[in-house]
């Protein structure tokens, strides 16, 4: 009897997964913020900031993946429609 490989979904907070899911237009911004947070995470107090940054960008990557993201973003800016707060979005993505 041979062992079957276990298929695991990618970790949404993995920096490589986030990077690959983001549109090319925002990848440089993500990498700049990520590298800065990694540098600060060498200090123990900076680790939480790194985790928060990955959580935020994970949610953003999911949002960018939606086909109507740009229209919804413009609607929010224009005050059109009803939307949940970012705090609510983050609470739904808690690990």
Cα end-to-end separation: 35 Å
Order of helices and strands: HHHHH
Overall average residue pLDDT: 87
% residues in beta strands: under 5%
How many helices? The count is 5
Which shape, going by the Cα principal axes? globular
- Number of spatially distinct domains: 1
Instruction: Give unreliable regions as ranges.
Output: none
- Which structural category fits the helices and strands? mainly alpha
Provide tags for this entry.
DUF6247; 0% strand; single chain; 95 residues; mainly alpha
Description:
There is one protein chain. The protein is mostly helical and 95 residues long. The protein is built from five helices and no strands. Helix 1 (15-21) packs parallel to helix 3 (47-64) and helix 2 (24-41) runs antiparallel to helix 3. It is globular, with a radius of gyration of 16 Å. The mean pLDDT is 87.
Structure in a nutshell:
InterPro entries: DUF6247. This protein is mainly alpha-helical and 95 residues long.
Secondary-structure topology with pairs:
Blueprint: H1 15-21, H2 24-41, H3 47-64, H4 69-78, H5 86-92
């Amino acid at each position: 009897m041979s062992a079957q490989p276990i298929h695991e979904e990618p970790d949404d907070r993995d920096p490589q997964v986030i990077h690959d899911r983001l549109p090319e237009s925002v990848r440089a911004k993500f990498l700049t913020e990520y590298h800065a947070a990694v540098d600060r995470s060498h200090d123990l107090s900076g680790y939480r900031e790194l985790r928060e940054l990955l959580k935020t960008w994970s949610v953003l990557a999911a949002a960018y993946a939606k086909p109507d993201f740009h229209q919804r973003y413009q609607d929010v800016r224009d005050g059109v429609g009803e939307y949940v707060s970012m705090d609510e979005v983050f609470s739904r993505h808690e690990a």
